[in-house]
Design goal:
This protein has 422 residues and is of the alpha/beta class. The chain has helices at residues 16-24, 76-88, 107-124, 133-141, 148-151, 154-167, 172-175, 178-195, 201-210, 280-290, 308-318, 357-362, 387-398, and strands at residues 2-8, 29-32, 41-45, 48-52, 65-68, 73-74, 96-99, 103-104, 197-199, 214-218, 257-263, 266-268, 302-304, 306-307, 322-326, 336-345, 348-350, 364-371, 405-410, 418-420. It has a 10-stranded mixed β-sheet with strand order 9-7-5-2-10-1-11-15-19-20, with helices on both faces. Strands 14, 16, 17 and 18 form a 4-stranded mixed β-sheet that branches. Strands 3-4 form a two-stranded antiparallel sheet. Strand 19 (405-410) and strand 20 (418-420) form a beta hairpin. It is globular, with a radius of gyration of 21 Å. The mean pLDDT is 96. The structure holds inosinic acid. Inosinic acid binds next to helix 4.
């Protein structure tokens, strides 16, 4: 029996999908534990590219069970579309189940989010993916949420929608008549139940644990988008950190390994601080060379150098046991590469991310410059990597706290473009 959590150590888009896909090969059960259709996990298998939003990457491995856990937010309409896309690509989804405890994103959550983003104004907008994530989780916390078990039950669904409708801001309720909401939800719930099992997710996990199974918990987004540990308020509304896996119904002692995934550089999409930004010319180059556009929204990502204070902080927050470094090939061909080794904050050097976002905004990154390399693309073993790329990775590892190992280095988008060092 063993449980592994895959988490992003930056702002999402670290390549967790391809790492989870790689690890899913040996798993019996893969559980997606947070977020919703705001995520986009890209997995390239041969000449086929799969972009998964909510469905765990394990679905691409026949025979592996998959669960959308209780900490997620499911938009049933988008979810059905995702299933349809997967079926078109020949993927069998019969092994997929959804936890009845998962949160359901309703049309009014999406509407509320549009409204809130406009009201925040240009300077304070979060730059969300507009998938209704924030209002859905807020409703859960306020105890007005819709759970999947309610959504799939006529009485529960009617009850939850009626209460939520009563609570909508003036005007929004008339714009979204109750009858229409109820009819649409009834139709979609019927379709959903025809396609996927709604289960008691934590029992599925306990059973797998009791049977000695390998469980993989797949996170979405990244540590600095966590609602509690991220760069608040420029965060998502769920828990992308390793602790978030426990919301699926297990305790921290059940987790054996935490694989922290980091790009070899940093990217961010949406608003909020990114201290190590490369500058417009290099960022434009990175976007084109490395395809740094959002997998869900297509928005251009901001690009920065690798930020060690950020990794150090994320390693501690998540209790990382091993690092998976992705997209090292994204730095191929540069004469020199830079790394942020610490920040200067109010005249003092610090080697962590302050939890107060206004302090992080004042932090000035301190860089070290290292020599670049030509190409890592064909490397499949450590020794195949150019020496300067090896030094770059060694430099990172030397600066991380604890005794964490280097688990994997990915050198390209395809499933097998990876150096497995475990
Ligand atoms: P929300 O999750 O749609 O509420 O968006 C909140 C913030 O998280 C915004 O800055 C989004 O751009 C960012 N975000 C949400 N999901 C992802 C993701 O999967 N990758 C990268 N950024 C994301």
């Amino acid at each position: 029996m063993s449980a592994t959590v895959v988490v992003g150590l930056q702002f999402g888009d670290e390549g967790k999908g391809r790492i989870a896909d790689f690890l899913a090969e040996d798993a019996d059960l893969v559980v997606r534990f947070n977020g919703g259709g705001n995520a986009g996990h890209t997995v390239v298998v041969g000449d086929q590219t799969f972009t998964l939003h909510l469905v765990p990457c394990g679905i691409l491995h026949p025979g592996v069970k998959c669960l959308i856990g209780g900490g997620t937010a499911v938009d049933p309409r988008l979810f059905l579309e995702e299933l349809e896309e997967l079926h078109k690509l020949g993927v069998d989804t019969s092994q997929l189940a959804v936890d009845g405890n998962a949160n359901v994103i309703m049309p009014y959550h999406r509407e509320l989010e549009q409204y809130e983003e406009v009201q925040r104004g240009k300077n304070n907008a979060i730059g969300t993916t507009k998938r209704g994530i924030g209002p859905c989780y807020a409703a859960r916390t306020a105890r007005n949420g819709m759970l999947m078990s309610d959504f799939c039950n006529e009485v529960g669904r009617t009850d939850r929608i009626s209460t939520a409708h009563d609570l909508l801001p003036l005007g929004m309720g008339t714009h979204m008549p109750l009858e229409r909401l109820l009819d649409d939800a009834r139709r979609i719930a019927g379709e959903l139940q025809g396609q996927v099992h709604i289960v008691d997710g934590r029992r599925v996990i306990w059973e797998a644990l009791d049977n000695g199974g390998e469980i993989l918990f797949e996170g979405a987004q990244g540590t600095f988008l966590d609602i509690n540990q991220g760069t608040y308020p420029f965060v998502t509304s769920s828990h992308p950190i390793a602790g978030g896996a426990c919301l699926s119904g297990i305790g921290p002692r059940n987790i054996d390994r935490v694989v922290g995934v980091s790009k070899a550089y940093t990217t961010r999409v949406g608003n909020g601080p990114l201290p190590s930004r490369m500058g417009s010319e290099l960022e434009a180059y990175m976007r084109e060379f490395c395809g740094e556009y959002g997998a869900t929204t297509g928005r251009p990502r901001d690009c920065g150098w690798l930020d060690i204070p950020m990794l150090r902080t994320a390693v501690r927050i998540n209790g990382v046991t091993g690092l998976a470094l992705t997209k090292i090939d994204g730095l191929d061909g540069l004469d020199t590469v830079q790394i942020v080794t610490c920040y200067e904050l109010d005249g003092k050097k610090i080697d962590y991310v302050p939890s107060d976002t206004s302090q992080l905004i004042r932090c000035k990154p301190v860089y070290v410059e290292l020599p670049g390399w030509r190409s890592t693309r064909s490397a499949r073993r450590w020794d195949d990597l150019p020496l300067n790329a090896q030094h770059y990775i060694e430099f990172i590892m030397e600066h991380l706290p604890g005794n964490i190992g280097l688990d994997m280095v990915s050198v390209g988008p395809e499933r097998n473009d990876i150096i497995d060092l475990r």
